[in-house]
Amino acid sequence: MLAGALVNRTIQLFSQSPAADLARTEKLIDEALAAAPDSSWAHYVKGNVLRVKGRWEDAIAELETARSLDRNNTGALQGLGWCKLYTGSLDEVIPLAEEAIRLGPRDRDIGYRYYLIGIVYQLRSRPQDAIVWFEKARATISAFAGLRAHLASAYALTENTDRGGAELTEARRLNGDIFSSIAHLKATQPWGVPNVQALVEATYFAGLRKAGMPEE
């Protein structure tokens, strides 16, 4: 559970020392798996660690193992959705998120599943549809800076630059370091395989520039 909390803190951009948190998480989860190799939760957390490190195919294997051990592991479904996004299999992402929503309609993390669906629409240059899902996510994860940044981009791409600017201001209030510039944002996390990076550049980053985020 501690390993899961640490890696989630990194994923959700709340960590003040992500490298240290990730190193500690890896040690803890390897110990947990050695003690309980059939733990669905432990394989799910290991999958998240690999996802953060950009090892998406290895993460998919761990998350599939987590699912096989517990078919109701909604976190594993969500994690698989992210890995499919990063590897360019966009058509597989929304069904995984929808299954997680169906299995856990009252999960405290449901907002992140709405957020994931919104990102797929954003990458497909459908900002209006993305906004619908991002606004649904806001009900439970309004303090997540990443969500506010994606809202900023989507609103700016619909020519609502005032709203886009307001959302960008909120993202910076929540996490000013990461959202200070496009260059800094690009350096903070992996953005997927090259074709996904191209989609991110043409949609998410393009919208952030319109919302007022500087290049450097």
Q: In oligomeric terms, what are we looking at? A: single chain
- What is the number of independent domains? 2
| CATH fold annotation of the largest domain | Serine Threonine Protein Phosphatase 5, Tetratricopeptide repeat
Radius of gyration: 17 Å
Average residue pLDDT? 95
Residue share in β-strands: under 5%
Helical content class: over 70%
Overall geometry: globular
- Top-tier CATH class of the largest domain: Mainly Alpha
The named CATH superfamily of the largest domain: Tetratricopeptide repeat domain
Number of discrete helical segments: 12
The end-to-end distance, rounded to whole angstroms, is: 38 Å
Supply database-style keywords.
Serine Threonine Protein Phosphatase 5, Tetratricopeptide repeat, mainly alpha, 216 residues, 2 domains, 74% helix, globular, single chain
Question: Could you explain the architecture of this structure?
Answer:
The structure is a single chain. The longest helix has 18 residues, at 18-35. The chain starts with a helix and ends in a 5-residue tail after the last helix. It has 216 residues and is mainly alpha-helical. The chain is 74% helix and 0% strand. It has two domains: 1-94, Tetratricopeptide repeat domain (Serine Threonine Protein Phosphatase 5, Tetratricopeptide repeat, Alpha Horseshoe); 108-216, Serine Threonine Protein Phosphatase 5, Tetratricopeptide repeat. Helix 9 runs antiparallel to helix 10.
